[in-house]
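Propose amino acids for all 359 sites.
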């Protein structure tokens, strides 16, 4: 089998409203969709969702890199996924979302070739994944209102709450959310690098009282030593998670060596897709670290891939694959991949990613 054509198209769907996190505001949801066609008539779809303050890519730079890959892959064997990553890495460093788009397309082709859904191709057996939904930074009153909506109207029982700008507002928002949704709803928080070791240690005490299970990326992405200190000095039951610090397998190894976290948040756009995402999960499992698969402003193509990875890997026990639900109408309009009832996702038993669209 050989790759005969690569097509790249822009995908746009409007967000319901801007989404604020500690290091910025996400106001649009543009991404790139890639279609990789083979000489056997099988094609695969992938998606790239660059975000400058996480992956170091813009839509423009991502497209330029994807065009380089498109030319390089003509005549390439799409089933040689390891070779594909070696080729992409030889062309350019980093650029995880551009690499992710091609990675996902190749896994989609491999699943179709073997007549297996991607989650089974990766070794999974259970297609059901329990997912959270995220509350962006707003006034404490508005965050409480969002929590009520997600729990009582949308049927979610795991909430991820963005924090990290003002610790006092963070505490007030979490107090209001816990009082509003009750004790049975699971809570985790994400500071997106907004705290210091000292402010985090103080906040963790209050988070524990409110039943918060995990705190994600309290410190700047580069501060592995600080993360290790925070974990050593954290005397609460709140687990510590790294996100922006874990881009690749080398970051995962470093975090293991320094004992920086209880969990890693794997994002396909950071690590370049399923190939390296699975390896990060294996590193975590071998060292007693748990994992979550998260997302950025992604559509259902890459979300399906992320959910598939959750279903396939033992170390991945949490899912934060919710971005497609923040488009107007609570969906991005892409059919297939999975069905959803509240926070329960059920992957389809269709070959590949099971996405019913073409470009």
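Proposal:
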């Amino acid at each position: 089998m050989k790759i005969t054509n690569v097509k790249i198209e822009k995908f746009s769907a409007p967000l319901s409203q801007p989404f604020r996190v500690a290091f910025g505001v996400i106001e649009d949801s543009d991404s790139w969709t890639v279609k990789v066609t083979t000489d056997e008539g099988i094609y695969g779809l992938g998606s790239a969702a660059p975000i400058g303050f996480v992956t170091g890519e813009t839509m423009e730079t991502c497209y330029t890199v994807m065009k380089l890959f498109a030319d390089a892959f003509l005549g390439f064997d799409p089933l040689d996924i390891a070779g594909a990553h070696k080729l992409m890495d030889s062309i350019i460093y980093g650029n995880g979302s551009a690499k992710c788009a091609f990675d996902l397309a190749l896994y989609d082709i491999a699943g179709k070739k073997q007549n297996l859904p991607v989650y089974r191709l990766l070794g999974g057996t259970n297609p059901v994944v329990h997912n959270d939904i995220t509350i962006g930074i707003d006034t404490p009153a508005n965050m409480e209102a969002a929590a009520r909506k997600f729990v009582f109207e949308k049927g979610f029982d795991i909430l991820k709450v963005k924090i990290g700008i003002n610790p006092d507002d963070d505490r007030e928002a979490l107090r209001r959310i816990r009082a509003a949704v009750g004790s049975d709803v699971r809570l985790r928080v994400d500071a997106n690098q907004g705290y210091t070791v000292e402010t985090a240690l103080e906040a963790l005490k209050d988070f524990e009282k409110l039943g918060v299970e995990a705190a994600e990326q309290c410190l700047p992405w580069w501060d592995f030593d600080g993360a290790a200190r925070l974990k050593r000095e954290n005397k609460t039951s709140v687990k510590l998670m790294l996100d922006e610090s874990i881009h690749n397998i080398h970051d995962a190894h470093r975090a293991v060596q320094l004992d920086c976290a209880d969990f890693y948040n794997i994002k396909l756009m950071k690590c370049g897709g399923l190939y390296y995402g699975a390896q990060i999960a294996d590193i975590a499992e071998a060292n007693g670290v748990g994992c979550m698969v998260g997302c950025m402003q992604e559509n259902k193509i890459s979300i399906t891939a992320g959910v598939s990875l959750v279903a396939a890997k033992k170390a991945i026990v949490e899912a934060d694959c919710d971005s497609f639900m923040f488009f107007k109408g609570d969906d991005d309009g892409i059919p297939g991949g999975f069905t959803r009832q509240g926070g329960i996702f059920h992957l389809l038993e269709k070959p590949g990613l099971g996405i019913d669209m073409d470009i």
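The longest strand covers residues 3-11. The radius of gyration is 20 Å.
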